[in-house]
Amino acid sequence: MEELSASHRRKFTGRTCSLHLNDVTQHAIALALTRAEAALAEGRLLSPTEAMALAGGDASTRETLFSLARAVAWETGGNQDDILCRLGERYPDYA
Length: 95
Description:
It is a single chain. This protein is mainly alpha-helical. It has helices at about 25-40, 50-55, 65-75, 80-90; strands at about 5-10, 15-20. The protein is about 50% helix and about 5% strand. It has a two-stranded antiparallel sheet. The radius of gyration is 14 Å and the shape is globular.
């Protein structure tokens, strides 16, 4: 049986995510997932390709998973990479 390390490579995002998250990052992930869900429901969530195509004007009122992860990490002190990894798992079409 394969032994689990402190991190695990996620198939959806290709990122290596920690399996052992601190409380701050766990809270930050929950907050980021809530914000991503709201952005998706409101039609404000862009894929990276859409964001690059729109770069500028209209894109400034929309979100990407990266922008959500970055903002929540700054606000909470959570780990941006782990937040982005979990967002990518939940919303693979936007990763």
